[in-house]
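seq:
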Amino acid sequence: MPRGIVDHQALGSEEVTSLRNMRPPAGLPFDIRKLGHVVLQVRDVRRSVEFYTQVLGFKVSDVYPDSMMAGKMVFMRCNPDHHGVALVGSARGESQHVELHHVAFEVGTIDEVFRAREHLRAHHVTIDFEGRRRAGCQIAVEFRDPDGHRLEIYWGLDQVGTNGVIRPPEEWREAFSLEEAVDTPPLGQDTTLHDPSLRRKT
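struct:
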């Protein structure tokens, strides 16, 4: 993804506009409320469960043995839902990112994103990106699990109300460090750190 580019001409193109204007049909007999869970294939279940529990803080809810699922299956939670992430030990190699791009986990405060960055570094986890993305304007740290799946810890994702108003591209504020994200907030995003000492010294 090119950094620092907001292509206003392409954003206003007929193709992009037609995608943006797609709406669900009236009268659907159901209403999806949230993304429920993601199931990832991993090469080494024990190694991956250690990463998700010890580094990211997930709790194990249930485990299927090989007799119930080839390679075992581990269900893990980060809230009252029985599972938000499940791991199946059937991967033959590192993730090729063919269909799934990344999985994102929300935290409750901007301070937690800063703490997550230092926690990940202390556990020798390579960070691919930190700062603020464009659309959605969330402040995030992006990294990989042991199988190379792309993961994200974020705070501050824009909320869309019942009026359907979405932040226009002119208000996006991409940033390439957490400190820059704090210093250049978009309209309406309060980036005040409760603990200013979390900032890295430059």
